[in-house]
Amino acid sequence: MHVDAIYAPDLSTPYKLPVFIGRLPAGFPSPADDYIEGKLDLNRHLIKHPAATFFVRVTGDSMLEAGIHSGDILIVDRSLEATDGSVIVAALDGELTVKRLYQRAQTIRLLPENKNYQPIDIHPHQSFEIWGVVTNVIHAL
Fold it and tell me: What is the DSSP letter of 78?
């Protein structure tokens, strides 16, 4: 899975949407105004560290089993420490990729979440930099 585009968050205009309390039935519609709990600003909900956050649009299918599809937008936080098991955006030999980090002792691998792809072993002679930890995935249904 590769990074197709990189975006900075626009935090200049809060956009608050109504939040409904209670269960939302998938059957016969009912009036919902009585259940409005308040307003939700998605910037405040999804972005914990605004100065360290960016968005990327991804292409490819190597992370399908992690719920990441081609065309999805990922929210990436540079301030979080990438630990073993984190889904990360990394630059490997000048190319951005999204994978799960495997880090044990002196071994670093980038693991796909699709059985059709092989893990990528990181060797000392390669250029490798973690750009950030993926915190959320946005995709259309």
Answer: T
